[in-house]
Amino acid sequence: MPIILRLDVMLARRKVRSNVLARAIGVTEANLSLLKSGKVKGMKFETLEAICAYLRCQPGDILEYAPGDGADQLPHDHEQDTLKRA
């Protein structure tokens, strides 16, 4: 997946333990562990907001977009290539 979660990095920067953050934002330690490892398909904006508020950071501090080998291109990109060739 081209979205990478950098929650572990921000926790280390802020010197906050996972269990402390989990309790503060109202999620289980298990769910926070899944977020940290990137083994989730999505996250509620409410959870993202709570994490950012507690860690005093922006969503971009914990989320990163890293496109792959081109297989993840949006259809719009393909349409642009087609138009250029015409």
What would you note in describing this structure?
By secondary structure, this protein is mostly helical. The protein has a single domain (3-85), classed as Orthogonal Bundle (434 Repressor (Amino-terminal Domain)). It has 6 helices and 2 strands; from the N terminus they run βαααααβα. The protein has helices at residues 7-14, 18-25, 29-37, 45-55, 59-62, 75-85; strands spanning 3-5, 63-65. The chain has a two-stranded antiparallel sheet with strand order 1-2. Helix 2 (18-25) crosses helix 3. The longest helix is centred in the middle third of the chain and has 11 residues, at 45-55. The protein is globular. The two termini are 32 Å apart. The mean pLDDT is 86.
CATH level 3 topology: 434 Repressor (Amino-terminal Domain)
- Mean pLDDT, rounded to whole units? 86
Q: What strand order characterises the main sheet?
A: 1-2
**Main sheet makeup:** 2 strands, antiparallel
CATH class placement: Mainly Alpha
Count of DSSP-assigned helices:
6
Give the overall silhouette: globular
Count of discrete structural domains: 1
At the fourth CATH level, what is the homologous superfamily? lambda repressor-like DNA-binding domains
**In sequence order, what are the helices and strands, one letter per element?**
EHHHHHEH
Topology record:
Blueprint (H helix, E strand, L loop, with lengths): L2 E3 L1 H8 L3 H8 L3 H9 L7 H11 L3 H4 E3 L9 H11 L1
Antiparallel strand pairs: 1-2
Please summarize what this structure is:
With 86 residues, this protein is mainly alpha-helical. Helices cover 59% and strands 7% of the residues.
